[in-house]
Amino acid sequence: MINRVVKNAEEALKDIKDGMTLMVGGFGLCGIPENCIAELVRKGTKNLTCISNNAGVDDFGLGLLLQTKQIKKMIASYVGENDEFERQMLSGELEVELVPQGTLATRCMAAGYGMPVIYTPAGVGTEVAIGKEVRKFNYNGEEKEYLMEKAFESDFALVKAWKGDTAGNLIFRSTARNFNPMMAMAGKVTIAEVEELVPAGELDPNFVHTPGIYVHRIFKGEKYEKRIEQRTVQKRA
User: Between the N and C ends of the chain, which has fewer C-beta atoms within 10 Å?
Assistant: First the structure.
């Protein structure tokens, strides 16, 4: 069995270079590869294209790479709570491709399945469809227009799991099981950071979300903050 373990984020990301395209797992601040992002900031890797549901907040997650102007293009579902993301987008400093969230997920999944394109009704008749092929299909007895979207192509996928083993098998916890599994399948090279790393054979196969066949490098992360994007509490009576 192949041992995919590397020492740390520095070793895992050693061959990520300027101008590459990265898939970055997570949803807002949940399930994001914090150690990998911090290493990219430290390395100063620039002109990156990042595919992620959003860019976190100003001082956390991908927001750290936006602060240092290391991201050239963001492909995301929404701007979220990131003021710097919004500012760079409106000023033209950052190239942004906004994608419907379901389409973003399915384009990731298609890449993992080896499907070059998908057809979706989302975005038909909107700015999202400009310059793209639209075809009509009969489905469930109804003829509708569907937009052709290409599967994503990324050099690396950076994902974060709760637990993993030395063979690369991954288990995600709760909401972190969002974009991480499909991005892990889609990357040409997939790097996983985990909270807990165990020997191969210790994980119950029935609970593995991503088989190790999709993971090329894995390491145990540290100092996870696990922030809450918007804390809402009930006022005391």
Answer: C
